Structures are given as C-alpha cells and as structure tokens.
Amino acid sequence: MSIPILKHGATLIVSLQAEPTDAEFVELQTDLTRRVTGTHAKGVIIDVTALDVLDSFATRTLREIAQTVTLCGARAAIVGVQPEVAFAMAQLGLSLEGTLTALDLEDGLALLHATFPAALVR
Amino acid sequence: MSVNGRGSLAPKLTGAEQQSLREFWDVYEPRFASIGAEIAEDAADHPELGSFVGAGNGEDVADNRERIAQAIRGGDWQDYLSRMMDTGSRYAEAGLSFSAWFATGRALRSKLVPLLTDELSGEPQRLAQAIRGVSIYIDLMMLAIGDSFIDAKERIITEQQDVLRGLSTPVLELRNGLLLVPLIGFIDSERALLLTGNLLEAIAARRAKAIVLDITGVPAVDSAVANHLMQTVQATQLMGAHTLISGLSPENAQTLVRLGLDLGRLNTVGTLADGVVAATSILKDAEARTAQYEDVLGQP
After folding, report:
1. pLDDT tens digits, residue range A53-76?
2. Contacts of B36 (CB under 8 A, 6+ apart)
3. Which of A23, A26, A72, B126 has the fewest CB atoms inside 10 Å of its own CB, making it the most exposed?
4. What pLDDT score was predicted for residue B57?
5. E-only strand ranges, chain A
6. What is the pLDDT of residue B8?
7. Predicted complex ipTM
8. CB A110 within 8 A of CB A2
C-alpha cells in the first residue's frame, strides 16, 4: 500500500508510520512530486515522529524530495526527528542540510509558512 | 610465592620459603622494636612520610610483632596482611606518592641485611636463607600495601570521574524555549556523546528552539572537539532547533582556522551575552511564526 498524502490547504502532509522500505520511499518521492504539481501545493511536511531509525538511504531520499519539491515551486520541511534518531544520524554523519526541520508538525507548519508565505493555508 | 586472589590473604609459600622466613624472623624478632624506632626516626626527615610514621607506642609495636610472628611461625597471614592493606589504603587516601611508601620497604631491607650478616656471619648457609627470608617478607608486605594502595587510588579516581561526569553536561533552561549549556573543561568523545544525548532529550522535553553552547571554559579546541561540536549542532538542527556557540577564545579560533576546518555550520557568536541576545531573537522569530500561523488558522 502506498504511503497516504494528506492535503491541508496549500500544504501536503505525509506522516510516515512504520519505517518505509526503499521502494516505498522511491514511490513516495514520485507521488509527492506529482501531487505538488497536480494540486499546486506550496508546502510539504514529512512527519517522521513514528520512526525510530533513519538510515542513509532514507536520509538521502528525504533530501532529494525536499530538493525536488523546491524545484516544483514549493517548500518541504521534515518534522519530528526523535532525539535518538538525531543522535544516531549525527554519529553517522547523516544530515538533512538544505531542508527545513522542525520539532513537530505544529512548528513545521508555522516555519514553512513563515519561510514561504505562498504556502499559507487557503 | 604469591598472594591469592582478592579477599583471601594466604600467600602460597613453599616449605623452603617458610623455613627462610623463620630463619630471618628468629634474628629480627628480638630487635623488632629497636629497628622499627630507627626506621621511624629516619623517616621523620622525609618530606612526605615524616608526618605519617610516628614511632608508635609500645603496645602497637608489640601487637604488630605478634601479628608477624603469627604469620611466619603459625602460617596465618590474614591479620598481618589485612593490616598492611589498610595501611596501603590509608597512604593512598592521604595522597602519599608511590616512591614515598616504597622507601619504607627499602629502609627496612637496608637495616635488616647488615643485621643478619652480623648475626649469622659464621653460618653462610643460614645467612643465605635468612636473606632470602627478608626478600620474601618485604615482597609480601609491599605486595599487600601496593595492591590496596592502587585499589584505593583507582577508587578515588573513579569517584572523581563520577563527580565530574555529573557536573560535565548541565543543560539549563534560560527561558521557555531557550537552553543554555555551559561547558567547562576538556571535551572528550565520551563527554561529547553524553552532552549531545542530554541536549537532544532536553530539546524534545522542553520544546526548545534555541540553544547557546558556551565554550568559554573549554581550554583547548582542536579538530576532534570541533567535530564533536559540529555533530552536536547538526543533531540539534535535525530536531528543528538552532544552536549558537559562544565563548570561542581568540587562540582557539586561530587554531581552528589553521587546522583548515570547515566551520561554516558552527554558528559562533562572541560572548555568552551575545549568544543569549542572538538566541532570544531566534526564539522571538519562532514565536512570531507560530503566532502568525495561528492568526492565519483563526481567520474564517
């Protein structure tokens, strides 16, 4: 089953539950890009609160999603990285540089809309 | 000859070794008090030992002689060796150096060997045995003192490390959403990991948006420390927080530049006060964003 993408005004929200497989990540990347252009969304939030691990492939894909979304004229934010996950990622030298990050969904929405006013809820 | 594992204080001695000890003790026992007094007198001038080695009252000396006799003649070393181990712990706790207490063993040997040579000059066989006995006796004594001396030292070091570790990574909440981490002393990997872990937990628990990492009290910042700091900063960024580093000394700044490290990601500010001002403004921005978004949501 593909990962559900929720629409909230001009923002698309993806909440990752169980750790997606590599294939699901790639599918998510394609789906999201299509939805951004299809719905004229201006913001994308990917919530990783439920994940207790983010490996190098996941990290790279999330970064790529953010870049792709930017190219399509929107902005993406990754929210809800847990302390243990952040700790492990820093140890492994994995970073989400170039993407917006926020503590949780609420902060992420505020950050996204402040950074990119076009993504305001309509 | 060996002292059994910790706890049981019974050295394994061969029959010949026991015989040597007895041979030596026969000569030493009658002069035990006078030799002890001589050693104490010599030690009185020693800068470290002076205050430690009192002549001891007659009763103590007699007790001690009794314990040694019990060990050498009766084969029961428990009392004597545990007494020596207490001595070792006491030396360590008093901060006595290794060489200082080792000197007492040397002094004893230098008194005993001439004494035996005099006493047993006509009997080379017995003399050789007695001198061997001195070695065994002093070795056992030093082994017991040394073992407990090192144990006590290690215990002291461990205790101090625990205390330092507790002090090492305080995460303070300066105001709602603003954390202050004052770092003092050298940063090694263990401390850096502890710091990162504590800080990330604190960010999650207190919904912190801005952190000031003050390194005024860190004496040396080399590439390893810079890497640790970079990792900490990156980890906090993953959680959506901004970390500022304050208090980098001019010397350390020059070192880092000379090392050619890419410090682009280390947001540094001058002093702790600057850090707090900058962090407050970051925090204000975050609060304004939230307020603005709430306004938008509130609109019909």
Report:
1. 999 999 999 999 999 999 988 999
2. B55, B56, B61, B64
3. A23
4. 60
5. 6-8, 11-15, 43-47, 75-79, 100-102
6. 59
7. 0.83
8. no
Give which of A52, A79, A87, A106 to mutate to test B binding, by max B Cβ within 10 Å.
A87
Name the CATH code of domain B172-298 (choices 3.90.550.10, 3.30.750.24, 2.102.10.10, 1.10.1040.10).
3.30.750.24
The pLDDT of B64-77, averaged and rounded, is 87
- Looking at the predicted structure, is the pLDDT value of residue B55 above 60? no
Indicate yes or no: CB of B204 within 8 angstroms of CB of A91: no
Q: Within 13 Å of residue B93, how many CA atoms lie on the same side as its CB? A: 7
Q: How far apart are CA B210 and CA B224, in angstroms?
A: 24
CATH number at residue A26: 3.30.750.24
Chain A nearest C-alpha distance from B285 (Å): 9
Which residues of chain B make contact with A106, given a CB cutoff of 8 A? 290
**Structural domain span for residue A112:** 6-117
Residue B102 has pLDDT above 60, yes or no: yes
- ∠A22-A24-A27 over CA atoms, to 5°? 115
User: Which CATH number applies to B15-163?
Assistant: 1.10.490.10
